[in-house]
Design a protein that fits this description.
The chain is an alpha+beta fold. The protein is built from 3 helices and 6 strands, in the order αββαβββαβ. It has one domain. Helices cover 30% and strands 28% of the residues.
């Protein structure tokens, strides 16, 4: 694991995640829980894809485990996708 894969880096690109949430009410609960994390500014869900994909934007470095812990509290799973650029 690297610093980039373990954290959400502030900037224009954010970090993509997948989740097993499929209900609209669960999606809104997940979004609200993620927005409670200090530093998270936006959660953008992609439409018409399964499993559900969303992007998180931050204004400071946020550890991926903080997002996963919020999801676990709601009894759902969140998995970070790999960076959009090659590391080597």
């Amino acid at each position: 694991m690297t610093y980039i894969t373990e954290n959400i880096i502030p900037g224009n690109y954010g970090k993509k995640f997948t989740t097993d949430v499929d209900d609209a009410s669960e999606k809104s609960k997940l979004e609200a829980a993620i927005l409670e994390v200090e530093g998270v500014t936006k959660v953008i869900f992609e439409e018409n894809v399964y499993p559900l994909v969303f992007t998180i934007h931050t204004d400071q470095v946020v550890h991926v485990s903080e997002i996963q812990d919020k999801a676990k509290a709601l009894k759902c799973h969140v998995i970070a996708k790999e960076p959009f650029f090659p590391l080597f």
